Amino acid sequence: MKNISIFGYGVTTKPMVEFLNVQGMKCHIFDDKFLCASSDEKGNVFAPSSEFKPQNSKLEIVSPGIPPYHPLVKQAKNLIGEYDYFYNLFSSAYCPQTIWISGTNGKTTTTQMLTLLLLHRGAKSGGNIGTPLAVLYAQKVPLWVLETSSFSIHYIQKAYPKLYILLPVKQDHITWHGSFEDYICDKLKPLTLMSQDTHAIIPKEFHSTKEVKNFLGKIFFYENSMSLSEEIGITAEDIKFKEPFLLDGLLALEASKILFEEIDITLLNSFQIGKYRIEEFRDKQMRLWVDDSKGTNVDATIEALKRYQDKKIFLILGGEDKGAHQNPIFELVQKWDIEIFSIGSNQEKLLKLSQQYGIRFHLCSELENAVKKIKHILGQDGVGLLSPAAASLDQFSSYKQRGDLFKQYVLEDLEENKDKK
After folding, report:
1. Could you give the CA distance from residue 316 to residue 149 in angstroms, rounded to a whole number?
2. What is the CA radius of gyration of the chain?
């Protein structure tokens, strides 16, 4: 008897396994982290990736975190992504309206803002954040607002949204996709699947791409926050948020206007920006620190730096850079009052760039060391900024853990740290 195979056992696939079990189906789950085969009380089998046998599998559901060059993906004969799986279950009895939000930075904030604007219509967030797709489907949620990664889009063959929102696309996840060009292609891929009764909000720079030219629905282009505010019919000053969150809010308003002809600025302005993204706080000496641990790529870090360019910046940089070039950061700040404190696996690369651009550099290796060094020299006119331009998994379990530890180290007394040693 052939099995349903699950590739990767993580945030998205765990609820998928539970969903399938409720339907009376058992799963064979393959993941590199499993060292030997085991099973649970529901009859699911957990096995190392090397034990996958395509001849024993009738369907392979892939976690978006599994890259296309992984042996599991290369061996699969009936591969499907999570989005396609649930799209295939939609019917006349239940076919929710779906909004997908993608791009390099700002996906989470835009998704949360739009969900707030559409709560009265039964909207719930899902995808990378919020409620798993399996739960959205089981609860028969009428409106899915999905933060959609390029990983998920890569594996889509049929599914498409009613509205696709694409935030600016910058270099990121180059290792996973193979090239920046392939990354862009995946970001534009939904346009190739969408029908005539759909809408898309796309950066104007992509207006001449084949995906845009062949798009069947109605498309709205934007260049920046000013062009978006003009399209909506408001002034940017009506929105309380500064960049980069201003763009996120305007995109949410534009989406609400397109789908439902609603523009609720008061409700949008009630939104609270989440943790780990340009989150300001002060230490016991009332010095300014900023947790931008969610700044996991170059563009996100550049946006954070622009907010504080009038201050002396003590920047904590580094981690798993996913193959992206870090040069734009150094080109931007080479004439600024800035010092860089490196952590993570790419710090030797950062050291060479600092030497090339003549920027003062501290090789710290660990986050705690970087914070300690900054504490000794940070003044009231400066800012201690964690904006790594890199993923966290080389040293931390997540960007959240990195941000939490950053705040913990900042708020600890130096004398307390000395006593711990």
Report:
1. 26
2. 23
Token pair belonging to 278:
């340009």
List for the chain the helix, strand, coil content (%; round to 5).
40, 20, 40
H-helix or E-strand containing 373? helix 367-377
Q: Cβ contacts of residue 59 below 8 Å, gap of 6+?
A: 4, 5, 78, 80
Residue 244: asked if its preceding bond is cis (omega within 30°), the reply is yes
User: Where do runs of H (alpha helix) occur along 45-149?
Assistant: 71-75, 82-87, 107-117, 133-138
User: Which residue, among 33, 2, 10, 166, has the nearest Cα to 100 in the 3D structure?
Assistant: 166
Q: Is the dihedral of CA 209, 184, 102, 228 positive or negative?
A: negative
What are the structural domains, with CATH classification, of the chain? 3-77 (3.40.50.720), 93-269 (3.40.1190.10), 279-420 (3.90.190.20)
Q: Which two tokens stand for residue 228?
A: 């978006």
Per-residue pLDDT 10s for the chain (421 aa) are: 689 999 999 888 899 999 999 999 999 999 999 999 999 999 999 999 999 999 999 999 999 989 999 999 999 999 999 999 999 999 999 999 999 999 998 899 999 999 999 999 999 999 988 899 999 999 999 999 999 999 999 999 999 999 999 999 987 778 888 898 999 999 999 999 999 999 999 999 999 999 999 999 999 999 999 999 999 999 989 999 988 899 999 999 999 999 999 999 999 999 998 788 899 999 999 999 999 999 998 988 998 999 999 999 999 999 998 888 899 999 999 999 999 999 999 999 999 999 999 999 999 999 999 999 999 999 999 999 999 999 998 999 999 999 999 999 999 875 444 444 4
Q: How far apart, in whole angstroms, are the C-alpha atoms of residue 222 and residue 20?
A: 41
Distances (CA, A) of 397 to 187, 309, 393, 403, 405: 26, 30, 6, 11, 11
Residue 89: CB atoms within 10 Å: 10
Q: Which residues pair with 360 in a beta bridge?
A: 339
Q: How many residues does the chain have?
A: 421
